[in-house]
Design goal:
By secondary structure, this protein is an alpha+beta fold. Strands 1, 12, 13, 14, 15 and 16 form a six-stranded mixed sheet that branches. The longest helix is centred in the N-terminal third of the chain and has 21 residues. It is globular and about 85 Å long.
Length: 470
């Protein structure tokens, strides 16, 4: 090989690294939208070129007008399915195709603690003034599939010094999600030290370099069976649908080790290597569910106002001012569907209930997204069950708590539960939103059919009630 070429290899490598570390992080935010709307952009360029060629060669032929209309119609359509939200969601609904379930899977988890309260517990467990708490994320310990244990995990970052500029993680605090009290594990993550956390410039640059056509979703720290930790960042990219729209999908997982080294895994590989990790992005579960609810009966049905629209569903929850904000965890009301649960035979799963748009509160459908891969399943209650959605069930919580003023307490994070007798319930965590924003108060089960509420002080009492008399 030419010696001159050999000498240039290190220079090219250094130039590539410098470009990746300095330029690409600033270019990548613009590169991704360009990729997202690539079919529309290419169609405009191609249509303009072909029309110009037609007029240049045979300007007097009538069929040129027809060709011009056809060439212009493609960009208009691609613009519509790219930028018009209903058409884009219709494209998502077409591609979803959930697998139907005949019976509702049994929930095996015992999660009682809500996200906002877990944040408070983590902050109160910190005795070091130079550290600050990050966003909590949930995970499931699947060592015993019959009795899975769920944890809220909160990373702690440095407030100042070199580690602050590096974005280093000092430790990870784990809060027992099965216990509504302040049960904090300070030992497991005591030495979970990452040179570069998910908020660091290094990790953002690494993501931009390795996955330039993707955007990061919620990061999480994963405890391996050998006691070591790793950082997992799911990636969302875009793929072409049958309508011509580029729709978001779960594309890969970036794994960053404490040393700063990394791996990139496919969703199937990551789901296999990291069981119990909530890898499927929450925002995708929400978007997919909303799209499916609106357009499962087709685009024409959605716009049919003459004959009356049928089977238009929405997420069964009250709206929150400011919209859906999955990462704003410091206000109890802001943690919205989907919620993670562990179901028998399915493992860690995102659960989203749907009800008809309008005055009805009937539980029309439950979508279940695999927490690792995003595979979707659908359960539609039979007409003989006549179950109510959580929005209606939440109103009955206060029947069981007559002394709790509504302006000071809120029922949050509805989870679906099945009793040993086959009855379906909604489990709510009731928190005091005036005392440090979200202090735990009660657990309330509401019968999804009869709307009878039952109040409990502990998750053990809830589990005992669901098991029924021995």
């Amino acid at each position: 090989m030419n010696k001159r070429l050999l000498r240039m290899i290190p220079l090219v490598a250094v130039a590539s690294i410098v470009f990746g570390m300095t330029i690409l992080p600033f270019v990548q935010p613009y590169l991704l939208p360009a990729y997202k709307y690539l079919p529309f952009s290419l169609s405009i360029v191609l249509a303009a070129y072909l029309i110009w060629r037609f007029w240049l060669i045979t300007p007097r032929r009538a069929w040129i007008g027809t060709v011009a209309v056809l060439l212009f119609s493609a960009p208009v359509w691609l613009f519509s399915v790219s930028f018009v939200e209903p058409l884009n969601q219709w494209s998502i609904a077409i591609s979803l195709q959930p697998k139907n379930l005949d019976v509702l899977p049994v929930s095996k988890d015992s999660r009682a603690l809500n996200k906002a309260t877990a944040t408070i517990y983590a902050q109160n467990s910190n005795h070091e003034s130079l550290l600050r708490a990050g966003h909590p994320h949930i995970t499931a310990d699947m060592k015993d599939p019959l009795h899975p244990r769920m944890w809220w995990q909160v990373p702690f970052y440095y407030r100042e010094g070199l580690n602050y500029f590096m974005g280093s993680v000092a430790k990870i605090v784990r809060i027992d999600a099965d216990n509504p009290g302040m049960s904090v594990d300070l030992h497991s993550g005591e030495h979970a030290e990452f040179y570069f956390g998910e908020e660091s410039h290094f990790v953002r640059t690494l993501f931009a370099m390795r996955l330039p056509l993707s955007r990061p979703s919620h990061a999480q720290y994963y405890l391996k069976p050998d006691g070591t930790w790793t950082l997992l960042i799911p990636a969302i990219s875009y793929k072409l649908s049958v309508t011509g729209a580029m729709i978001p999908y779960f594309s890969s997982v970036l794994e960053v080790l404490p040393s700063g080294w990394y791996n990139v895994w496919s969703p199937d590989e990551a789901g296999s290597y990291f069981p119990g990790a909530p890898l499927f992005p929450l925002e995708l579960g929400r978007l997919y569910a909303e799209s499916h609810g609106k357009f499962k009966s087709g685009l024409i049905n959605y716009y049919d106002t003459v004959l009356g629209r049928n089977n238009i569903y929405e997420v069964s929850e009250d709206s929150v001012t400011g919209g859906y904000s999955p990462d704003d965890v410091h206000v109890a009301a802001d943690n919205r569907f989907p919620f993670y649960q562990v179901f028998e035979g399915l493992g860690l799963t995102q659960m989203i209930p749907l009800e008809p748009v309008g005055p009805s509160f009937a539980l029309s459908e439950v979508l279940l997204f695999d927490g690792g891969t995003g595979a979707v399943r659908s359960y539609i209650p039979g007409a003989d069950l006549s179950l109510n959605g959580p929005r209606k069930a939440e109103k009955q919580v206060w029947t069981a708590l007559p002394t709790f003023p509504h302006e000071k307490y809120k029922a949050v994070e509805a989870r679906i539960k099945t009793g040993a007798d086959g009855k379906v319930y909604w489990l709510f965590t009731v928190v005091n939103i005036t005392a440090d924003q979200s202090v735990f108060a009660k657990l309330v089960l509401v019968d999804a059919r009869e709307l009878t509420p039952y109040a409990f002080d502990s998750q053990e009492s809830v589990d005992s009630f669901l098991r029924g008399p021995n």
